[in-house]
Write a structure and sequence with these properties.
- By secondary structure, the chain is an alpha/beta fold.
- It contains 13 helices and 8 strands.
- An 8-stranded parallel β-sheet has the order 7-6-5-4-3-2-1-8.
- The two termini are 32 Å apart.
Length: 298
């Protein structure tokens, strides 16, 4: 049986890459062995159409294909979190497609519109939530809206959690204090930011590492859930090179690093799409190769 949503939200939200075939079209079946390994390792909740899945490089048709195919690959083994976003009509269409595919909940990307307003974002979240009737996790990458506006978003019916993706623990603490205590706050900045955000009350974290080394991600989660920060930090130190490579070029190699590592492991998921960088530079690739060899990942 899959985990209850509240439990899964407090676990590892594994952000899956979007594989492409030789023609450059989405090829979700290439995720089969990647998903199987991550689920066997103990990943709590796969995420499709997230940023590591190049959401903004996909058409809405492609995103609909990805959620339907990934749901079929999971086949009820775990809850599925489905990313939705962009224009409100596109987001609602993708939300409905995600519900039809069997997704457990929606992850609503924070609108990147240059003229976004806090109250308009509340209307956006309401519309998307109503379109699908699924529980919602908010994906918050900009905390400048302040705790009051965040509280308004969290008060929308169906909102169960917030993926906090800004490196500001004290703002997280203020937002948590302003919101319903039943909201689940999740570190949205992957493993390396999990300890400081755990310290103010976040639980669980998102991960792109699960595509490449899910066992390490699960070990980090186990340590943090046990309050063992020393072990968690030591485990994080072993994978920091991977995250440093992904952070290069203004985070433009975020997905590049994951797909390059998968390719080195024998999983050809295709290149990233522009404007993401592809391929890694020779220097970046040398660092990645050393990281993979040091940790017996190739």
């Amino acid at each position: 049986m899959p985990l209850p949503l509240d439990t899964a939200l407090r676990g590892i939200s594994g952000i899956l890459v979007t594989p492409y075939d030789d023609a450059g079209d989405v090829a979700p079946q290439k995720l089969t062995s990647i998903l199987d390994r991550a689920l066997a390792a103990g990943m709590h909740m796969p995420v499709v159409n997230g940023n590591t899945g190049e959401f903004y490089a996909l058409t809405i048709d492609e995103a609909c294909t990805m959620v339907a195919e990934v749901a079929a690959l999971i086949d009820g083994r775990a809850p599925l979190l489905a990313g939705v976003g962009r224009g409100v009509r596109d987001a609602c269409r993708l939300a409905r497609a995600s519900a039809e595919a069997g997704a457990t909940a929606l992850m609503i990307h924070q609108p990147p519109d240059p003229f976004v307003s806090p109250r308009g974002t509340v209307d956006y979240v309401k519309a998307v939530s109503d379109a699908a009737g699924l529980p919602v996790m908010l994906y918050l990458r900009n905390d400048a809206i302040g705790p009051g506006a965040i509280a308004d978003l969290c008060a929308v019916d169906g909102v169960k959690g917030v993926k906090w993706a800004t490196p500001n623990p004290m703002k997280l603490a203020a937002a948590m204090a302003a919101c319903d205590p039943e909201i689940v706050w999740v570190c949205g900045l992957a493993e390396i930011w999990a300890p400081p955000l755990y310290a103010v009350g976040a639980r669980g974290f998102t991960s792109g590492l699960i595509n490449v080394w899910p066992e390490q991600s699960v070990a980090i989660h186990t340590a943090l859930d046990g309050g063992d920060y020393d072990t968690a930090n030591a485990l994080i130190a072993r994978m920091r090179t991977f995250e440093d490579i992904r952070a290069d070029e203004l985070n433009g190699t975020n997905v590049t690093g994951v797909k390059a590592a998968l390719l080195a492991q024998g999983h050809d998921c295709g290149p990233t799409r522009a404007p993401s960088a592809w391929p890694l530079t020779p220097a970046q690739n040398a660092r990645l190769d050393q990281f993979l060899r040091d940790n017996a990942l190739i």
